[in-house]
Amino acid sequence: MHDLGSIIRDYRKRAGVSQLDLEMAIGASPGSLSRIENGIVNPTKETLLNIADVLKLDAVETAGLFDIDLSIEQFEDSLQGIRAMLSGKVVDYALGEKLTEIQNKLGYKGIAFSYFDQDLNALHLRYFSTGPAVDFAFKYILDQLSFNPQSLDNLDTYTKQCVDENRMFTGEVLSDFASPPLTKMQCKLIASTIGLKSFIALPIADENTVYGALTIARKESLASFNQNEARALEKMMKQIADMIRGLLKLLSKEELFKLNHERISRR
After folding, report:
1. Coiled coil where (predicted)?
2. Is the pLDDT of residue 139 over 50?
């Protein structure tokens, strides 16, 4: 278990911020930061996100507050997984592990990763984080979209829009993110049964390329989704995009051409 209090203290001192000033900036009561830094109390997710925002932590540092390692070194052994993803098989194992970790430690109901195929102008659903929501609700979507990629021309969803426009979308209706292939009635049943209250679509992208999108299911309403959480998620997704881009650079142009040709020839 990481020493969260000491980590926060180090970041605070690096930023040259006193305990009192940080307490005032995040709206915490006097003395609360001292108790956090000394390990007497555990901060809430909202408090950690506020601290990360005020201290201007980067993606790796923000994730580290939740004991999630998003350093690029974590993915250096993942080249074979990226090859598998590009050839139309399964998403990289390390990426899937990180999505599940983000889901569990930040309290989401599920995270789905859709890979954008530029050649086919289509979205392939490549991964769902593990958990009851996935087991119960999304197996059908995974089966459908893994083998039947959805053309962006035929989609009218926030997931498509975040790929098209390279920006985040939020909403409270599952059908805004998941259909087709699900009908609105199926989406409503799934959301009400599992207790899903809101959804986020985030592009996985760098400055020049959108690699895909994440759809994040939440158990809280959008009223509890603040800008600090949005900024933290965007930082983490950019870090994951940088990881994917770095791994893609390791593949030769010849291998990329071969993998794309193999995938298209199977359609």
Report:
1. none
2. yes
Q: Copy the structure tokens of residue 16.
A: 């040259």
What SS3 class is residue 103? helix
- Residues composing the chain: 267
Residue 167 lies in a domain: yes
Residues contacting residue 205 through CB under 8 Å, at least 6 positions apart: 166, 211, 237, 238, 241
CATH code at position 8? 1.10.260.40
Q: Which helix (H) or strand (E) holds 256?
A: helix 253-265
Domain housing 199: 72-265
pLDDT tens, position by position, 193-231? 778 889 999 898 877 788 888 888 888 888 888 889 888
pTM (whole model) above 0.70: yes
Which pair of structure tokens corresponds to residue 28?
Answer: 């915490």
Evaluate whether residue 67 is within a structural domain. Answer: no
Give the Cα separation of 113 and 35 in Å (integer).
38
Among 129, 118, 181, 186, residue whose Cα is nearest residue 152: 118
Helix axes 45-54, 227-250, angle to 10 degrees: 70
Q: What does residue 119 show for φ and ψ, rounded to 5 degrees?
A: -65, -40
CB 81 within 8 A of CB 98: no
* pLDDT tens, position by position, 53-67: 999 999 889 999 999
Please check the confidence at residue 75 and state whether its pLDDT lies above 80: no
Give the SS3 label for residue 259: helix
Instruction: Please name which of 101, 9, 86, 48 lies closest in space to residue 263, comparing C-alpha atoms.
Output: 86
Q: Are residues 177 and 215 in the same domain?
A: yes
